[in-house]
Design goal:
Elements: H1 4-20, E1 25-31, H2 36-48, E2 52-55, H3 58-67, E3 82-86, H4 92-103, E4 108-115, E5 118-121, H5 122-129, H6 134-162, H7 168-213
Antiparallel strand pairs: 1-3, 1-4, 2-3, 4-5
């Protein structure tokens, strides 16, 4: 009979599993024969997406699933079983697991899953896995929201140009023409100013000469 310490450790494991089953989503996986390299690659991908992944004991998981009302999952808890869960992105576990299942169909198989307290079959997990990652969905949503605004701006510009309002190119050409004409208009003023200065100099000279004659 197991010692009290061992029983307490198993009880703690069941409690931890129970809490994991309360997260947003999870996927049960059957893996056989994958290499250390493949397993490492998958675990790295899981960590990058904040997905918790580890091998579980079927005997202890059977207690955990009953604690959360997932009794129907008991039939899949045979052979080798691992669990991938996420409390941030509910699609991430299914998407990553399916990615590796597609690469290794003989050694990696989706058993079942759950999301928001509801059990999902392997087919449903595969369907969920096709949904893009959250950042991709956000970018697509932003693009959809901005598209009408961009189209409206293009239409308004076309209407303005059709009604005779100057386009950007016309406005630029007008500014350049004004810049060229400005010096030309300034030249006569400069010539008049120079003529005035010459007249004043002549007048001053005549005054000096008349004074000397006196």
């Amino acid at each position: 009979m197991p010692s009290a310490k061992v029983l307490e450790e198993k009880k703690q494991i069941v409690n931890d599993m129970t809490e994991r089953l309360k997260c947003k989503a999870g996927v049960f996986v059957d893996f056989k024969g994958i290499t250390v390299v493949e397993d490492t690659q998958m675990r790295v991908k899981m960590r990058e997406s904040d997905v918790e992944y580890n091998v579980i004991k079927n005997s202890l998981m059977k207690f955990a699933i009953k604690n959360v009302g997932f009794d129907a999952l008991e039939d899949i808890l045979v052979g080798t079983t691992s669990l991938a869960t996420s409390n941030d992105d509910p699609i991430a576990p299914a998407r990553i697991v399916r990615e590796f299942a597609d690469k290794m169909p003989k050694y990696f198989e989706i058993k079942a899953g759950f999301m928001d307290g509801k059990i999902m079959s392997a087919e449903e997990v595969n369907t969920i896995a096709r949904i893009p990652a959250l950042p991709v969905l956000q970018a697509q949503l932003l693009g959809t929201m901005l598209a009408p605004i961009t189209s409206l701006a293009i239409v308004l510009k076309a209407i303005a140009e059709k009604d005779g309002a100057p386009s950007d190119t016309d406005a630029k050409a007008t500014d350049e023409a004004a810049a060229v004409e400005a010096p030309a208009e300034a030249e006569p003023a400069a010539t008049e100013e120079k003529a005035t200065e010459t007249t004043e100099e002549t007048t001053q000279t005549e005054k000096v000469e008349n004074k000397e004659e006196e």
